[in-house]
Amino acid sequence: MKAKKFINESTKIVDEMIEGFIKANQEMIIKIPETDAIARKSIDRSKVQVIIGNGSGHEPACIGFVGENMLSANAYGSLFAAPSADTTYETIKYCNSEKGVCVLISNHAGDVINSRMAIDMAKDDNIACVGVILYDDIASASKEEISERRGTVGTLFNYKITGAYANEGHSLEEVVSMSMKVRDNTRTIAVALKPGTSPVTGLPMFEISDDEIEIGMGVHGEAAALTMRMGASKEIAKIMVNMLVEDKPYVCGDELAVIVNGCGQTTIMEQLLFFNDVETELKLRGIDVFKPQIGSFITTQEMGGISLSFCKMDEDMKRCWSAKTDAPYFKA
Questions:
Q1: What pLDDT, in 10s, does the model give residues 56-69?
Q2: Domains 10-184 and 186-320 share a fold
Q3: Quick one: pLDDT at residue 60?
Q4: Angle at CA 103, nearest 5°, toward 297 and 170?
Q5: What does DSSP say about strands 29-31 and 37-40: parallel, antiparallel, or unpaired?
Q6: Which of 266, 328, 319, 329 is nearest to 293 (CA)?
Q7: Closest to 149 in 3D by CA, of 182, 184, 120
Q8: What is residue 129's three-state secondary structure?
C-alpha cells in the first residue's frame, strides 16, 4: 500500500519545499539566484564561509542549518541525490570571501565527486577553497578503513562547531583544521525500526520484520551491522553506547556532546526516554554529557529509528557548540 503524503506534483516536490522554506524564513534566508542553493542574507565577507551540499529528502538537513554561527549556504540536490558540481560551484562563488570558503562534504559518492569538481572549478577562478570530507558512521567501515565510513548525523557537530569557529575570524587553514578535529572526535551509530517511503513512489525504501530492528542501518537503507529482536530502550541504548565508546575509544573523564536524532517517525517522547538511557550508560563509565541535542535533525522521510552521535569536546569546541545561532532548525 502506498504511503499518504502531502504533495502536489512529484516533479516539483523540492522546488515547492524550498519556496515554502524561503517564505517561512525570509528575514534571514535567501535563495541564490538561478541556483539550487540557499544562503544567509547577511554574509561577512571578511571571514571564512562554511558551506555544504546534500540531497533533499532529509529535512531539516541541511537547509535548516543555514544561519549565524552555522552554515553560510546549502547547495541542495533532488530527492536523495547530491547537488551537481555546477550548483556547488555557484554556491562557492556566491559565498567567496577575503579568507576563502570551507566546503564540508558528507562521505557519499555523489557528494564527494561533485564537490571535488566544484572546488577545482573554484580554484580555477582563484577562489581560496578547501574541502573536508566528513565521516562518522561506525557501521559502514572498520577503524582500519575509517575514511571509507559514511557521513551521517554526526556531521551536525561540524556544521555547528566549524561554522561558529569560522565566524570568530580564524584563517581558512585554521577552520579546516578545526573541521578535521571535530570529525576525528565524532562517532555515530543508528537503529532502524521501520522504513521510510519515497515521496515519489510512496513505497518503502527497505524492509524490516515487525519484531526486529536493524542496528547500523544507513540513511537510505544501506546494510545494517546487526539485526536483533526488538527490546527495551535501555537494552538498545546499552548496545549502541558500547559500540560507540569502544570504537573511538571514549574513556572515563571524557566530556561528550551527544545527539539523539529521530529519523522521521520517532516521537519526542521516545527520543527523550532514549537519551535518558544513554546518559545513564555514559555516567556508569565516568563520561559526562555536554549540551545534548535531542530532536529530528537528519531524517529519511517517516523512517522509524534513532541515530546516536558522540563528539569528544575540548574548550574551543564547547564554546563553538554553545554559540547562539539563528539557524531555523537548531537551538543552541
A1: 999 999 999 999 99
A2: no
A3: 98
A4: 100
A5: antiparallel
A6: 329
A7: 184
A8: strand
pLDDT at 126 over 70: yes
CA distance 43 to 71: 10
Cell reading at 142: 572498520
* 3-state secondary structure (DSSP) of residue 283: helix
Amino acid at 88: T
Catalytic: which of 40, 47, 58, 160?
Answer: 58
Mean pLDDT computed over 10-31 = 97
Q: Which residues contact 267 (CB under 8 A, 6 or more apart)?
A: none
Q: Do 159 and 152 meet the contact criterion of CB atoms below 8 Å apart?
A: no
310 in Cβ contact with 187 (< 8 Å): yes
Where do the domains of the chain lie?
Answer: 10-184, 186-320
- Provide CB contacts within 8 A for 257, sequence distance 6+: 157, 289, 290, 291, 292, 293, 310, 311, 313, 317, 318, 321
Q: Measured between alpha carbons, how far is 76 from 74 in angstroms, rounded to an integer?
A: 6
Q: Are strands 37-40 and 73-79 parallel, antiparallel or unpaired?
A: antiparallel
pTM of the model: 0.96
Is CATH 3.40.50.10440 correct for 10-184?
Answer: yes
Q: Residue 223's pLDDT is what?
A: 67
CA–CA separation, 211 and 238 (whole Å): 19
C-alpha cell recorded at residue 206: 527497505
Which of 39-53, 58-72, 221-235, 265-279 bottoms out in mean pLDDT, i.e. has the lowest?
221-235
Measured between alpha carbons, how far is 275 from 272 in angstroms, rounded to an integer? 5
Closest CA to 101 of 67, 66, 71: 71
* Whether 220 is catalytic: yes
Measured distance CA(227)–CA(224) in Å, rounded? 7
Q: What is the mean pLDDT of residues 85-104?
A: 98
Superfamily per CATH, domain 186-320 = Dihydroxyacetone kinase; domain 2 (3.30.1180.20)
Catalytic residue among 5, 31, 93, 220: 220
Q: Which three cell numbers stand for residue 63?
A: 537547509
- Residue 239 grid coordinates: 548496545
Active site residue 58: yes
